[in-house]
Structure formats: C-alpha cells, structure tokens
Amino acid sequence: MFNNSSKILFITMMIIGTLITVTSNSWLGAWMGLEINLLSFIPLMSDNNNFKSTEASLKYFLTQALASTVLLFAVILLMLKNNLNSEINESFISMIMLSTLLLKSGAAPFHFWFPNLMEGLTWMNALMLMTWQKIAPLMLISYLNLKNLLMISVILSVIVGAIGGLNQTSLRKLMAFSSINHLGWMLSALTISESIWMIYFLFYSFLSFVLTFMFNIFKLFHLNQLFSWFLQNKILKFTLFMNFLSLGGLPPFLGFLPKWIVIQQLTFCNQYFQLMILLMSTLITLFFYLRICYSAFMLNYSENNWAMNSHINNFNMNLYTIMTFLSIFGLFLISLFYFMF
Amino acid sequence: MKYLSICSISFLNLIFISMTCFVLSLNFMLNNMVYFIEWEVVSLNSMSIVMTFLFDWMSLLFMSFVLMISSLVIYYSKEYMSSDVNINRFIMLVLMFVLSMMLLIISPNMISILLGWDGLGLVSYCLVIYFQNVKSYNAGMLTALSNRIGDVALLLAIAWMLNYGSWNYIFYLEVMQNEFEMMIIGSLVMLAAMTKSAQIPFSSWLPAAMAAPTPVSALVHSSTLVTAGVYLLIRFNILLENSWLGQLLLLLSGLTMFMAGLGANFEFDLKKIIALSTLSQLGLMMSILSMGFYKLAMFHLLTHALFKALLFMCAGAIIHNMNNSQDIRLMGGLSIHMPLTSACFNVSNLALCGMPFLAGFYSKDMILEVVMISNVNMFSFFLYFFSTGLTVCYSFRLVYYTMTGDLNCSSLNMLNDEGWIMLRGMMGLLIMSIIGGSTLNWLIFPIPYMICLPLYMKLLTLFVCISGGLFGYVISLMKLYTLNKSLMLYNTTSFLGSMWFMPFMSTYGIIFYPLNLGQIVSKSFDQGWSEYFGGQHLYNKLMTYSQTLFLMHNNNLKIYLLLFVFWILILFNFLLFL
After folding, report:
1. Residue B511: which domain range?
2. pLDDT of A85 above 70
3. What residue stretches are annotated with the NADH dehydrogenase subunit 5 C-terminal domain (chain B) (predicted)?
4. Which value does ipTM take for this structure?
5. What sign results for the dihedral spanned by CA atoms B566, B568, B569, B573?
6. Which residue among B133, B271, B434, B437 has the highest number of C-beta atoms inside a 10 angstrom radius?
7. Are the beta carbons of A112 and B553 separated by less than 8 Å?
C-alpha cells in the first residue's frame, strides 16, 4: 500500500480533507473537506484483485454521498433562512445535519452500513475507517448544540455495539461493533467537553491500532485463527488478549482511563441514566472479549494440530512490545507521571 | 550407596535431647527450681504479646519423656515405614509434631501456647491423612474439626484474658480464682482440653484417628497429643478445685472412662481397641485431675505414655506381620510365632491392667486408693472401679484373641519375629515400662501419700481386676456350639460397641441438616432460580437480541439509505409545518 505512489497521494488528500473540515469556519467549507476526504478514501479502499473491497468502496461511496448531499441540502436551507455563519438555533435543521453526520460516522440508528463495509476492507483500511474517518464528522457534531437526539444515538450506539458483538466470529465485524460502542462513548464525551472527547479518541485510536497492527501482520480475520496462529508463541497470544481487554476497558489496563474520565464527568453532570447504560453495555462487551480470551488465560485449552508458524520481524515485534507495554501498564504509568510532575 | 537414614539422625538427636532434659529435670526437682524466660514480641496498647518459656521439673520431665518416646518411635519407623516412598516427609512431620509438643509444654502463656496447640492440630491432621485414601481423609477431617472447637475455645479464652492485661495465666490463676471472668476462661480452657483429650462429647475422633500409620498412633494418639489437654488442665488445675468446673469434668471424664472401657470389649480392630483403652486412661487422668490431684494425673500421664506407646508399637509389629490386617479375629497363637513381640505386648498389657510392680501399677493403684480415701459420690466411685475392671477385661480378651489358640489367618502366611529394628525400638520402651513406674514414683513423690484403708477396701482394686480378667476370658471363650452372646442383645451391643453412637452424632448428627439445607439451597438457588433469572437468562436474552439485530443487518443497503431519506423527509416536514 505504501509502495504505491498514487496511494500516497490519496492518503495525503484524505488527511487534507479532514483538516479542511475541522478548520473551516463555514459549513460549506466543512462540506467541501468531507467530500475531498470521501473521494480520496475510496481509491484507497478499492483493490482490483478483491471484489469485496470494490463492493465495500461502492457502499461507502453511496452512503457517504447521500449523507453529504443531505448535509449540503441542510446547509443551504440554513443559509436561506439565516446567514451562512450564524449560530444554529433551528432545531430541525440541526437535527437533519446531525442525522447526516451520524450517518457519516456510523453511529447507531444509522450504523447499518458500517459492519458490512468493514467486512470487505483490509486491516489498515479498517483502522482508518474506525479512527481517522471519525474525526471530521465528530468535530462537526461538536458544533451542533443538540443534546436529545445525540443522547438517543449514544444509547443506541452502545447497546448495538455491545449486543452486535456477542454472536460474532469475524474479527473485522467484531472490531466494527466495538467501534460503534466506543463511538457511543465518544459522543457522550462530546456532550460534556471537546477535550474529553479528544482524549477518548486518542486512546481509542491507540488501542485499536495495537490490535489491528497485529491482525494485519498475521492476517487474522476470524476468531478461530486466533487460537491456531499463536500456538508457537504463548506470550504473544497472552499479550494480544490483554490488549483486547484493554480495548474493552477492564480497569488495570490503559483502556479504562478514558472511560474513567468520561464516567467521572458524566457523574458530575448528573447524567446517571446515560452513564448506567454505557456501563452496562461495556460489561457486555467485556463479557465477549473475556469469552474470546478464555483459551489464552486458562491453563488448559485445546490446541489445533494444524498450527502454522507465525513470523514477525524484529522491528514490528519491538513496536508491538512497546505499544503493548503502554496498553497494559499505561494506567500505572500515568499515575507515576502525575506524581513526577 | 547407602545413605545415613533420616530416622537414625533424628533418633540420635532426640534421644540426646531427651537425656539432657531428664538430667535437667532431676536437677530442677532436687533444687526446687523454676526458670522463666520471657521474650517480648510486640507491645500493643499496653498489652504485650510475649513468648514465654517455663522450665520446671514437670515440663522438663514431660519433655524428656516425649522426646524419648518419639526418638524410639522414629527409630521404629525406620523399618515399619521402610517401604514407603515418602518416609522423609513422614519423619519430618513427626519432628514437626515433636516441636509443636515442646512449644506447648514449655509455654505458660496463652498466646505462645496457641502456637504449639495449633501446630499439634495441623500436624496431627497431616499425619492422620498420611495414607491418602477416603477413610483417612474422613478421619483426618473429624480429627481436625473436633480439635478446631478447642482452638476456638482457646482463642476466646485469649480474648477474655485481655481483661487482665497479660496472657501469662500462671500469675492470675490463684489471685483471680473466684472472679467471674476467670471462671469463663477456665471453662473455655476446659473445653479446649476436652477436645484435645477426646473427652465425652468429642470422643469420636480418637478411634477414627487410627487411620494414621501405627508409629504415629504410638506417638501421637497415645502418649503425647491426647495428653496435651490433660497437661493444659494440669497447668490450670487451680481453677478446677472447689468449683463446678471440676465437678462437671469429673462426671464427663468418668463417663468417658466407662464408655471407652465398655466399647473396647466389643471392638475387633486391634488398633481401635488400644485407642479406646487410651481413651479410658485419659478419662482416668482427667477425673483424678478434676478431683485436684494434679501430681497424680501427671504421674499417670507419664507412665501411661510409656506402656501405651509400647503397646502400639507391638500392635504395629503384629499388623506389619499380618500383612496390614488389623482384625484380631484373624490373629491367634502369636505367642508361638512372635515370642519376643508377644512378650512386649503382654508386659505392656499387664502394665495397663496395673499388674504389681510394672509401670501402670504405681500410678493406677495410687489413683484408685486416693479415690477411695477421698470424698466422692457413689456414681463416680462406681465408674472408677468398674472401668478398672473393664480395662483388665478387654486386655484379657485381647490376649485371648491374639496370643492363644491357632492362627486364624490364611493357611499360607509368613510370620516372623525378626524385625530387629522394630524390636530394638520396642526393647527400649519395654525396659521403661517395667521400671518407669517405680522410678517416677520415687522421683515425683519424695514424701509418700498417707493412705489408710480397711483391708476389704485395700483389696477391692485387686478383686476388681481379677474378676475383670476372669470376665474377659469367659466372655470371649468360644467353642463350636457357643451361643453368640452379643447377638442376643443386638441393640445394646451396637449401642455400647459404637461408643454410645458418638461417631454418628458428631459427624452425621451435626452435619445432616446443614448439609441437606445446603443441597436444597444449592439446587434451588445457586443452580436454580438465581441461575435462571441471573446469568443464564440474561445470556439467552442477549443472544436472542443479538440474533434479531443480525436479521436487521442482513438487508440490502438501499433499504437503509431509503430509511435514512424517509427520516430526513419527516424532519423536513416538521421543519416546514411547524
């Protein structure tokens, strides 16, 4: 992917598109950034040798294009009624805009395209879809001052993310549902303050990067591969599943930190109902992560006879080790830094 | 390559320490000297927890006896346990046991005595379950849990001792004798001692503990562990005098003595007979102690330790030769096949019965005569003398079954009397159980007891013993057409032969209803309602939801996009018309 010069161009364009969106001071500029971002991400997704990725890119294009169209429609409507730069007071217009942005980011009532799409992507594309592609819509959502619809979306996102992952055997779909669940948390962080959202987003990106990095190296796409690929290296397996738990937000690991911050801020804002649903759904996600981890954490487990050797080069291994160390001991390290400075 | 055996090393060490203790004890006795060593471990809120060692002639003498018996037992184990893979573990456990016993003997402090006391409980549990099978596991559980009651009582006594600001009980016993708190402490200590010495409500563990290897029975369940309770009460004897505690203890220990003596007459397991006889002798010690004669109790404790350990070692040798069969009905004629062992067996049996000038005679005869000149009621008097008769009765029955007649085991059976290591171990104790009584008598009682009795009372002991012996012979006499006397009174026999149903009461009786309740709770709550409404139901529901969700996911993309457009149209309608 990185050897292809056109792909480098598209990646740069994609980044620029997002930057245009988050820095623009008018809705039209934001829309333009979104379009640039969309149009440059599609060639990244499609692969001539893989018709599933072509299908995925087409689905992505259709969904995002529809969302962008409606967004443009709403923006023009807004401009007709007011000035382009004015504060948004019209709740229905902003509801339309919020709906489009939720569709773009893949939040719950409009998330149906997201897991299907993920199924056709490579892991690097999936990572980009889960993390980078969320920045622009979420940033735009933060401009909209509309709590009720957002809260409905939050609740639905966490529930769908939790329940959708339960019966899942495809790792990409699992990560997709996990992403939806985390998106719920991020949206609820967004209702409190942008900096909390940013912290959550950064930690989420880091944790999902560690996982997808390993999945990408070992070309893991289904759960049963997890049990067979790592037989030669039990510690690798063990740490990988620790990363899973970290992503799920189990307390001693780093993944708990952003959740902790959100939990604290939500209690300060008296959002107990929302918080309770968030926590319950996270328990369900933790349940299925733990269920996956059984084979790694238990003393006795069944092993396949057809296990294959897995290869990982030295640089990747070092990178993985450092990231895993941060992911597992990050919470303690942060406390240490707190005492240090 | 022959290594130096752990048994030999331990034997040499222990016998050396034993001799040292014995000489020291003589010195202390001669000079009437007591050493009191105290080490403060921690001081908390003006309470100091101290490790205290009390060396007087009593503790040193007891220590020397325990060490001597344990050294001989370890020597004996070298052959008895020679084919055992884990003999090192076994010897180490025995040594740990001896260490705990030492700590118990020399501690006059409630907290430091607990160290030895709990050590005894733990190690005796490990020794009882040494042969790892279900039977010994059950026996070990019964032993450990019965003793746990005593541990708890001791802990409670420690809590009550907080009132006095220190746990060195020997300083308070005399001063606080009439205090209510001291009475509570005394009763708790008595409870502890009764569990350790297997007095009546807690008797069932002692015969059960015979699942342990025979050397352990010789050391632990006859001479040392079970006498720990007696020794504790000897230290607390002031509290028993002139109080209801002493009276209660007299009744219970008298009944224990009677019950065990009677039960031994119905038993066919060689080790269990000896265990019941131990129980009976413990009752004797306890009862004379509860009447205030603590020196006599100590005296009997020591002599009993000698001949009872010997008796167990002989039984072990016999069992070893009978290929681990303990049933006395299969034995017989052993005096011909194993003469030396049989000699030791008979000497210790006679010492147990109180044959004049053997070890048991001096202590037992003195106890009985002291009882006669003391002021006891008719019931206790009856218990004392009837139990003495029963002792002789079951001893003669045992001799009849094992020593006389023909061997009743399989027709091809190799018996020999050439286990020289075992025999050498037994010889040491044989000498001690012949001369031990008189030696101790002269040492412990420099001034003889003044006992003045009419002739017929003086002869009462002798009469009781002889008639007991005759009874023992007559009731076990068997011919081809002998009517089985036990089966004629089956209910009575099963009552008396099973220790008055005490093993059932202290196992099933206690656990039956809680266990049933536990089963019901576990079935209907843990695995029933709370499982259904808790984990399983939640899991099933979530799985159903998940499946429903996937039904929704399996649609065409255009449906989702159309739904989105409809949603936008609805919003737009509101925008237009509101």
Report:
1. 485-527
2. no
3. 394-573
4. 0.88
5. positive
6. B437
7. yes
